[in-house]
Amino acid sequence: MESHQTTPDACIVLTATVTVPQDMYMTVRTDHATRLNDYRQAFAKWLSNPHVTRIVLVENSGYDLSEFVEASRRYPSKRVECLSFTSGFDGGRGKGFGEMLCLDQALGRSELLRECSHIVKASGRYYLRNVGKLLSFLRQRPELDVVCNLRHNLTWADSRVFASSTRFLHEKFLPLQSSVSDSKGVCFEHVLARAAHQSMAEGGQWSMMPAVLRIEGVSATDNGIYGTNPIKLGVREAAHWLHLLLLGSPKRLPLQTEGAPDREN
């Protein structure tokens, strides 16, 4: 993949499906108006974050994104692209397959991604409160190919938010798209983990997240709310810091004690 890097700042890529297929597997948050409101609220927070300078919103159900374009105009210092297309994929493949289609469209159509070596991908209905820390980490570690938390004997990657080079997406992750099918037990998270391992096997570099993900939003799988819980926060921060030390990640990263999600996928 040809490189067009002109900036050290990663681009935020927000994936979206406003109108969910009726046969979407393992998805209960399907109401059009509810989902649209989720996207509106999260997008406003991404726009107002001072650490975020580039955003690509990519939507796969053909929804008119004019209102999001208009909202972005209130932030002239930000560079924002809103891309919409109609995918019409089999709902049995699951919402993760739709996200992969979004990433493929973004790589093919976005001018901003041609200028960036790395992205931070987030589900568009979610907002990451501590995204500034992740963006700073990527500036310090430009050699990283993928940044994600691996779980379940390293076979599953948390895909709500992850970071990667555009080269990793193009060469390692998206070529595995056809294998994603939630109804067959192979989800986006499994494939992301496989791509990370393939990258490492070929000399690429992976890191877990530099801090616990502080996600705000509502899970589409079960309508569970990602919120804050001080007790769970302390446990997660301590466990995350221990993992960072054991895996040899930079020791300069400080513990944080602000809000963190009180649910996991």
CATH class category label: Alpha Beta
Mean pLDDT: 90
CATH architecture: Alpha-Beta Complex
* Strand fraction: 15-25%
**Quick one: biggest sheet?**
7 strands, mixed
Structural class: alpha/beta
In DSSP terms (H or I, runs of 4 or more residues), the helix count works out at 7
What spatial order of strands do you see in the largest sheet? 3-2-1-4-9-6-10
In the CATH hierarchy, the third-tier topology is known as Spore Coat Polysaccharide Biosynthesis Protein SpsA, Chain A
Q: What is the total domain count?
A: 1
Shape verdict: globular
Describe this structure in words.
With 265 residues, the protein is an alpha/beta fold. It has one domain (11-214): Alpha-Beta Complex (Spore Coat Polysaccharide Biosynthesis Protein SpsA, Chain A), CATH 3.90.550. 33% of the residues lie in helices and 17% in strands. The protein contains seven helices and twelve strands. The strands form three sheets. The chain has a seven-stranded mixed β-sheet, with helices on both faces. Helix 2 links the parallel strand 2 (54-59) and strand 3.
